[in-house]
Amino acid sequence: MAMGKVAIDGDVVDSDEARVSVFDRGFLYGDSVFEVYRTYAGIPFAETEHLERLARSAARIMIPMPVSIETLSAEVRATLDAAGEGDWYVRVIVTRGTGPLTYDPTTASAPCRVIIAAPVSVPPAERYERGIAVALLEASRPTDDARAAGAKASNYLANLLAVHEAKQKGAQEALMLGRDGQILEGASSNLFIVKDGKVRTPEPQPGILVGITRATVIAAAADEGLEVEEGEVRPEDLYGADEAFLTSSIREVMPVVSAEGRTIGSGRPGPVTKRLHAGYLRAVALATGSGV
Known about the structure:
With about 290 residues, this protein is α+β, with helices and mostly antiparallel strands.
């Protein structure tokens, strides 16, 4: 069974040999940024966009990028080549590095970069055929703070606990609510709703990570002649929608058919969701030359 490879500061090793210091601030405090994307036919999709966002995240929380985006891309390619044939989940992490046991970030030195190529695990086909359930939850996350807004930081404890709570409710994803009760995003996804043929997604604001897949779907919607409005989405908008779906690099476009036990639309994946998933896959095929 393929286990993948890991590169640490440019050195590629087997996944079970990968080591970082216990004094690394990414390990101690979640003081790091990351990106996740996947390959299709061995070719990473939207890699440049992900690595550029990684650099923006690092700048946002004042982590110096240790190498250029071009070098990171080359190291990803070397890691994938070492991993071999197949499609891979790619995770790129930049930590602040090691230093004294203090919260003061200025004491750290030598940011560490880690690239993980692991077998990609996609959702089962039945979830696309039947749709999934979501739960709406309140949570306070580090990136809800305006000082860290927009950074894809590794401190995901609130998200992990929200997903656990959602699963206790029989849902497959947690949707996070803002201070005013509006829906922000999923624990690891962005939300779209469809009403009377019009598509809407929460507007960028603190607490929302503007996803790469989200942007690809908005572009695919334009190609389909569908306008996507960015605006406030409240729970009642979701409950009353004709369709809803989530977007993320691994899920792609995932239909949502119930929220908090309430059926959305017909309770089945809708036609607009299916069109936009097909449009997303066409964008992937065009970019990677794959036959998806």
